[in-house]
């Protein structure tokens, strides 16, 4: 729901045209320097989108095992259609065709590559599948509240939330069930982090009824702390939206 300018501002911090910088661990961990796996979203695609980065666990704290036995976070290269991306999002259109560094196509025969090291590959794959019409690859039921929260953060960043509309009803029903289950297990309360994430999700997806329900449900059971912010009544919890994206104007509600 951000404007193009705000989305582009955040995008410019995470997009590069060269491979992500190698960490200091690269010299001691061969796994951290392995090339990204390639997945074809569009077999005729003209753009290689490198999403995420190779990250290695701290060499000083890892167990004494071979690097190949340690879980690593890996970048993924998605072969996509640049025109499809530009039609899907004004942010991507400006990024790819608006005169930015990423807009510079290589010389004849070269590969057009854009790196998005700050983004999560699996979540981006869902968005790319939707944008390219590969609906059979899109989950009918989403995973956890946190997963849906992270997905909507990504669609907000690139102004792509409108693509999720066909799946919103099913995903929201599943989230509502999860929310009520959490309340039952927590004797009427759910962790403040999950509650904050739920509010962001329903705001980003434009579900006004769920937004009203959540705000009332949480506000009635949340006293104000010394800073006049809602203090969610959960053991060990802090203020609402602590470390969670907050919808505009929520602090004043």
TrEMBL record:
It comes from Monosporascus cannonballus. Residues 1-12 have a biased composition (Low complexity). Residues 1-40 are annotated as: Disordered. It comes from the Eukaryota. Residues 13-29 have a biased composition (Polar residues). This is BTB domain-containing protein.
């Amino acid at each position: 729901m951000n404007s193009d300018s705000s989305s582009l501002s955040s995008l410019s911090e995470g997009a590069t045209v060269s491979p992500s910088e190698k960490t200091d661990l690269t010299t001691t961990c061969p796994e951290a320097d392995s090339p990204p796996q390639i997945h074809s979203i569009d077999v005729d695609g003209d753009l290689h989108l490198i999403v995420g980065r190779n990250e290695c666990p701290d060499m000083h704290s890892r167990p004494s095992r071979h690097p190949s036995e340690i879980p690593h976070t890996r970048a993924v290269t998605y072969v996509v259609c640049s025109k499809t991306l530009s039609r899907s999002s004004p942010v991507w259109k400006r990024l790819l065709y608006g005169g930015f560094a990423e807009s510079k196509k290589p010389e004849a025969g070269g590969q057009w590559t854009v790196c998005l090291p700050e983004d999560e590959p699996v979540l981006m794959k869902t968005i790319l599948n939707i944008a390219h019409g590969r609906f059979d690859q899109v989950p009918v039921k989403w995973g956890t509240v946190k997963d849906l929260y992270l997905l909507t953060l990504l669609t907000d960043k690139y102004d792509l939330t409108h693509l999720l509309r066909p799946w919103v009803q099913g995903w929201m029903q599943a989230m509502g069930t999860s929310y009520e289950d959490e309340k039952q297990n927590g004797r009427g309360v759910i962790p403040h982090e999950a509650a904050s994430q739920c509010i962001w999700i329903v705001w980003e997806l434009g579900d006004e009824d769920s937004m009203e329900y959540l705000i009332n449900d949480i506000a009635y059971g949340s006293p104000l702390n010394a800073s006049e912010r809602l203090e969610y009544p959960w053991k060990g919890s802090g203020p609402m939206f602590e470390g969670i994206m907050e919808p505009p104007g929520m602090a004043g509600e």
